[in-house]
Every structure is written in C-alpha cells, then in structure tokens.
Predict the structure.
Amino acid sequence: MSDSDVVIEMKDVVKRFGDQTVLDGVNIEVRRGETVVIMGGSGCGKSTTLRIMIGSLIPEEGHVQVLGKDIAILDENELNGVRKRFGILFQSGALFNSMTVAENVSLILEEHTDLDASIIDMMVKIKLELVDLREAAEKYPAQISGGMKKRAGLARALALDPEILFYDEPSAGLDPVTSASIDQLMIDLTKRLGVASVVVTHEMDSAFTIADRMVMLHQGRVLMNAPRADFEALRDWPEDRLGELNENQQLIRQFLRGAPEGPMTEHAQGADNSYAADLLGIDNSKLTGGRSVQSTRGVRSSGEVGFWQGLFKGESKAKGKS
Ligand SMILES: Nc1ncnc2c1ncn2[C@@H]1O[C@H](COP(=O)(O)OP(=O)(O)OP(=O)(O)O)[C@@H](O)[C@H]1O
Ligand SMILES: [Mg+2]
C-alpha cells in the first residue's frame, strides 16, 4: 500500500490532563479500507485517542493528520469540513429523543448539504436500508431496542458517505447475538463502502471478528500494533511455552484471554492500599507490601509474602496462569 492510502496518521502524540500523561508518544496509522481495533485496559487512553483523531482534543506534542489535514491547527470551519468526511458512532448511539429515527438521519443531511427535501428523503431511506432499519423509520428512540439504536446511530454516521468511521464501544450493553449482528454489519459496510474504520472495544470476540489490524495500548504507549493474525497467535499461545514470550507479549496474551492472573494484574498494583483496606474494613497500615488490591487474584499470583499471602495460603501462586 502506498502512503496515499494513509487516512489517519498519529505521530509521537503526547496527551496530558493536568499532570497526568495519558498518551506518551503514540504512533498509529490507519489506511483506506481497513478496520483498526484499538484496545487496552480501562482508562488506558482509547477514547482519548479517538477524540484526538476526530479533532475534539488537541495533543500537547506530536502531530495528527486526518485525510491529509493537520487536524490540530485547523480553525473551526476547516475542522467541520474534514468532519463531514467521517462518521462517528458514539457509545449510546446519541440520538435525539424528540426526533424519529428518520429525522435523526435527515437532520445531518439538512445541516450539511443543500439538497432538496425529496433527495434527502431518498438518501435517508438508503441509509436506513443499509442498516436494515427501514421499518423503524418513524419510531422514536424510546420505542426501539438498544441494538436498533446502534443501527440508527450508524445510519446517521453514514449519512454523509464518510471516508472514515469511528466507533467507541459499538457493542457495549448489547446481548451477544445483537452484538454479533452489529459486528457483521460493520464488516459488510467496510467492504461495501470501502471506508476505513477505527473501533475502540473491550469485547475480544468482536475485536477478533472485525479487525484487520489491532493496536494494544498500555500505560500511554502502543504495546503492539500488528495484523489480527499476530494477535491471534499470541492469544492462542500454549501455556507450556509461556517462557518463550517476553513480558509484554505475556501481558498482551493475558489481556486477550481475559485471564485474571499474569503480568497485567501484577503491574496494576500500585503503592496504595486504601481500596483493600476499605473493602475489608481494616486499618490501612496493617496491609504490608505496599500493593493495592485491585484484584486479589493478582496479588495472589504475585508470590509476595505478607498479609495477602497469608490470606490466600495454599492457593496457586503460579505466574501468568490462566
Ligand atoms: N477531559 C478529561 N479531563 C481529565 N482527564 C481525562 C479527560 N478525559 C480522559 N481523562 C483521563 O484520561 C485517562 C484515559 O481516559 P480514556 O477515556 O481515554 O480511557 P479509555 O481507555 O477509553 O477507558 P474505558 O475503557 O474505561 O472507556 C483516564 O484516566 C481519564 O480519567
Ligand atoms: Mg473509553
């Protein structure tokens, strides 16, 4: 693929909130027609990355090119021009409750184009057909299910024939079957419309279904950026050959498998014991070892001598067990 296929380029991006550095030198490229899934633990900066890509947050360092434009230096007018070229599906669908599904979609077209009402009407029908929601056109958001709201949000995101689609947790709050149907819809749309998609998700089944490439964020950095197959190989890496993986690879494997024990949970333990103390209703100073207990399983696996070890005496201390 040539450089002209790159629709998003984030280079050495640093984003801070106050004295918290959320992104610490992030590099991500997205090419035309591919679906890139961004994943990582809660609070690792996935939504922040997405918001930087759509120009609603400006990074402190680095640069971000979207559809050939440096998104950080555009004025509001220019930014809106670029934004017209992408669609965003927010977590909740973010529909206007006082408008029908069809009106939610047509609003975008009325705001951003000079098309006749009859043409807009036809385009709305086409978009609703794309997401299989023609029958619900005249319904209000309160009258449709969560999955249908997602579809309606998607129809709206597609209204202006975007070149890039952004999704933040598209399957959050949906049952597995509905979630799988949204995945399938995303795959179909990417194929049929040739758009690039950037998807933030926690759902591993979904991630492995839709991704061409995956990006794993951890502690403000890109831990791995590779084709889906490479991530699959790590996920399926056999337990008895764990020693062949470096620590980062073990951490990614743990994340992909949703395993409670491994380097990820051990790293997550900081110097603060207040949560554990609160949980157990005991004096914080009695907790030795200086680790907070965000996951008792993680502490269990750390092999650390102290209060927690005593508590879970006799239980497995094996590292990276899953
Ligand atoms: N506007 C903001 N002001 C201050 N801090 C923020 C802001 N937005 C995000 N943060 C902080 O930045 C960090 C990353 O947040 P972000 O929403 O990007 O995480 P995430 O990876 O999307 O998490 P989740 O999986 O829970 O949605 C968090 O610690 C969050 O509190
Ligand atoms: Mg988020």
